[in-house]
Design goal:
The radius of gyration is 20 Å and the shape is globular. Helix 5 links the parallel strand 5 and strand 6. The strands form 2 sheets. Strands 1-4-3-2-5-6-12-11 form an 8-stranded mixed β-sheet, sandwiched between helices. It has a 4-stranded antiparallel β-sheet with strand order 7-8-9-10, sandwiched between helices. Helix content is 37%, strand content 27%. The longest helix has 17 residues, at 22-38. Helix 1 (10-20) packs parallel to helix 4. By secondary structure, the chain is α/β, with parallel strands linked by helices.
Length: 292
Amino acid sequence: MISNNPQHTEYDTWAWLYNQTMGPQYCQNQLQPLEKILLPRIKPNAKILDLCCGTGQLIQILINRGYQITGVDNSQEMLNYAHQNAPNGKFLLADARYFELPPSFDAAFSTSAALNHIMTIPELQQVFQRVYSALKDNGWFLFDINHHQQMQRWWKGKIAEGEIEQQYAWMVTPNYNPDERKGYFQVTMFQQQTKSSSASILRTIWYLLSPILNHRLLYRLRIKLLTKFQAKEKNWQRMDEKYFVRGHIPEEIRTVLQQTGFTDIHILTLEGTPTIDDKHSAYFLCRKPIKI
């Protein structure tokens, strides 16, 4: 692995949990926009850049399909897991704003709204410039964001997801200030230290209901159990980590992409419609033009 000023980040703390839970879960969701929007536009053995690749589960899926993947992430611990999950992948430890790679990629993508963590427009333009420089002429770039309108609707300071396991539990609570267009999601992690009867009861209920708790109609029950666990559990080791984000405006991002040099800019939902509303994330597809 190539190293570029490695340093501890808050994502190192989260890496073990992400690798066991959200990494495997999210990669299937992340694959869908790639299959619908990006992959049909590139050759079968294309060279692709995964920006903010996390623990690499998605990289291995794409390698299995014949693509050549390089992952970039600024968390050493995330990349340690990525090496295990995608041993044939290439990885670069670097900040998305500052990485340097030659113009050798047919396409690039960034998933899971990773670019919401870029807190200013000038810094976002730095990211776009780095991606632009790494793409071949006619190379495509796909990424998604949680935009301002969407975050204002959904990021209400209540638990949004999580799980209760035998040895650990976790939950994610998103918060957003629409006036400042800034927010954060708090990841709360519990690890078992001593036995607790109240938590054991909740774990038993969770275990019995786990086959059906992922059904959308039981979402409220799932969140209620997580909320009760968070309130009652006093004996497990608890750690809270905040990850700060920016609620970007899609048209502002379009402008920055244009200023960077990208063309054929499309803003659409996962369903392919160009109408972005507060119920959908915004997907951006753009292209580095051929130099004449």
